[in-house]
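Objective 1.3, modelling of assemblies. Example input:
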Amino acid sequence: MKQRTIKTALAATAVLGLAFAGMASAEPVDDTLVIDGVEIVTKAAGAAHLDGALPEAMSGWHFRDTETRAMQADDFDNPGMIYVDRGLDLWNAVDGTEGKSCASCHEGPEAMAGLRAVTPRVDEKTGKVMNIESYVNDCRTTRMGAEAWGDKAVELTDMLALISFQSRGELMNVAIDGAAAPFYEKGKEIYYTRFGQLELSCASCHEDNYGNYIRSDHLSQGQTNGFPVYRLKDAKLTTPQGRFVGCVRDTRAETFKIGSDEFNALELYVASRGNGLAVEGVSVRN
Amino acid sequence: MKRQFMLGMAISAFSAGVAMAQVAPENVEFADGAIAQSLSGTAGNADDGKKVFGTAGLGNCVACHAAVIAADIPFPGTVGPALDGVADRWSEGELRGIVANAKIMFDGTIMPSFYKTSGYIRPGDAYTGKAGTEPLPPILSAQQIEDVVAYLLTFKE
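Predicted structure (tokens):
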């Protein structure tokens, strides 16, 4: 069905020749992401737990145009890297009643290497889903004596950028069994629920129609391995749950809140759909 | 004076006629996915329908559908089938039914229902992300549906 749709559109392109110049190809681009001489894994066999729903997992990088892909391949051109630097300043900044910075306990940010690849994950003691943002705020409130940063605070996205960057190139390996199992199931249910007046699920666009265009937007698989993402249209970093808010809103639905049980479960589930793809550090999308 | 009065009466009668002919979203009758009766009671205007078809804040049909006849509207999508020749393949009533609520003709289709007001999961207040209260206003008005159908009826090969 999808193939036929694409062919029909391509036929129309051939007939018209103009006006369609921006969408010459509907397929994800066959390209390799190399940053500083290191190849980043942007394609992987679909995770077994998806039962074939995704034959191949693909980073959103493959769905962006040549200029945007090139921007991510060079850290000097990647606008998201500025936020990594800002995150490092925050890492070293003392805050709160305990007179501590992140560095006081963890030393360098490289101590966080690997964390981004296995989160969100379920905390064994509390049974809560923890992503990077919730770990940072937990540390601030329980160890630093500082206030939690707000859901949309730039400090939080800066820290997410810094900590994600420490895991660049590591393969996503989010656990879905054990304590994570009920959250996985809940996230999966949300993923396939058609919300809002447009009655669209995550799957409607990102499983059934990736590779197709919705107006000028080339639909990707909605993978989260690249997050935080520098979106050129927003000129700022976006977190996975920040993007969820935008997506659900655009179905003319009442969104869930960042940090809600629903979005925590959904983030875990969506991340697990990209197991095998590499953490990109800070990605660039349009 | 008398003539003005008569004219006023005529306009009132005409308005009443329109109001009576309009079919509310919850009263629409489908037969095999088609809607035989005009939803507004007023003939559709294809030019207005083209605006609804191409405007993001209205029908935004072009977001998913391409067609040679609509090639002057930029960035047609590929999520839905190309619409070339739909007027040859579908009747007016079938096109009206598909635009109003495609899920009745095509079970499980991704296509949103443009003349439906309730039965949603977490319905929102348009694109605000805030909660909406059912019945929601339909995405398109009865007349906008008729206008889009009139435009689609020009899609001949």
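The interface with chain A takes residues 56, 60, 62-64, 66-68, 71-72, 74-82, 84, 103, 110, 112-113, 116, 120-132, 136, 139 of chain B (CB under 8 Å).
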